[in-house]
Automatic annotation (TrEMBL):
This is SRPBCC family protein. It comes from the Bacteria. Signal peptide: none annotated. Belongs to the AHA1 family. CDD domains: SRPBCC_CalC_Aha1-like_6. Residues 29-136 form the Activator of Hsp90 ATPase homologue 1/2-like C-terminal domain.
Length: 206
C-alpha cells in the first residue's frame, strides 16, 4: 500500500472556535455495512485500532485500552456513531462522531472530533495533536478493509514509510491550521512540535 497515497485520500478541516473541531473525510472501497462492522464490532476493532471493553450499546460506556473512554451517545446502524471521548483526569468536553454513507460503490467515511483544548496544548501543537492520531487510525482502517498487514504502531515512526506518513499528516494539519486562522509562524511551530511528538528521532546507542 502506498501510504502517501492513503494520506492524500483524506480531506481535513478545522473549525477553530472556543471548542476545536477536527474533521476528516475519505472514501473506502468497501460497502457501508462492512465499514460499520469494522468500526463497531469489538473483535474487529481490536485488529486495526485498540481493544475495547464496556457496555457497547446506546447509553452504555466503553473503554479503549490505554486510551479514551466515555459514553455511547448515539448508535444508528449502519450510519452514525457518536460517543464522548474522555482521556485523563480532567478532560473537559470531548465528543467524536462518525458518519458513513454510500458513495461511488464504496463508503464515504466522515469523522468529527470536537473538544475543549487546553490553551497551552493548542498553542504548542494545534490541530495535529489529535489530527495525526486520527490519520493513523484511518490508515489502519484502510489496511484492515483491504486485507493488508497492519503497521506496528510502536515502531511505525522508525520506518521510512512511517516517518513520511506522519510528517505528511503533520504538514497537512498545519495547512488546516492556517486555513483556520493561524499565522505561518504558528502553523510551522505546531507542525514541528507535532512531528517531534509522533515521530521522535531514534536515540543513538551510547
Amino acid at each position: 500500500m502506498d501510504f502517501i497515497d492513503e494520506l492524500n485520500r483524506t480531506h481535513r478541516h478545522l473549525v477553530n472556535g472556543e471548542r476545536k473541531t477536527v474533521s476528516l473525510r475519505r472514501h473506502y472501497d468497501a460497502d457501508v455495512a462492512e465499514v460499520w462492522e469494522a468500526c463497531t464490532d469489538a473483535e474487529r476493532l481490536s485488529r486495526w485500532f485498540l481493544p475495547v471493553t464496556g457496555d457497547l450499546r446506546p447509553g452504555g460506556t466503553y473503554q479503549l485500552k490505554g486510551n479514551a473512554g466515555g459514553e455511547i451517545l448515539r448508535c444508528e446502524p449502519p450510519r452514525l456513531l457518536k460517543v464522548t471521548w474522555l482521556f485523563g483526569p480532567d478532560p473537559g468536553f470531548s465528543e467524536v462522531e462518525v458518519r458513513l454513507s454510500a458513495e461511488d460503490g464504496g463508503t464515504l467515511f466522515e469523522l468529527e472530533h470536537t473538544a475543549e483544548m487546553p490553551a497551552e496544548m493548542w498553542s504548542q501543537f494545534g490541530p495535529g495533536a489529535t489530527g495525526v492520531g486520527w490519520d493513523l487510525a484511518l490508515l489502519g482502517l484502510g489496511l484492515h478493509l483491504s486485507g493488508g498487514e497492519q503497521v506496528e504502531e510502536a515502531t511505525f515512526h522508525l520506518t521510512p514509510e512511517g516517518r513520511g506518513f506522519i510528517t505528511g499528516s503533520s504538514r497537512a494539519w498545519g495547512e488546516a491550521f492556517k486555513a483556520g486562522g493561524a499565522t505561518d509562524g504558528e502553523a510551522e511551530a505546531a507542525v514541528a512540535a507535532t512531528t517531534a511528538f509522533y515521530a521522535p528521532e531514534e536515540e543513538s546507542p551510547a
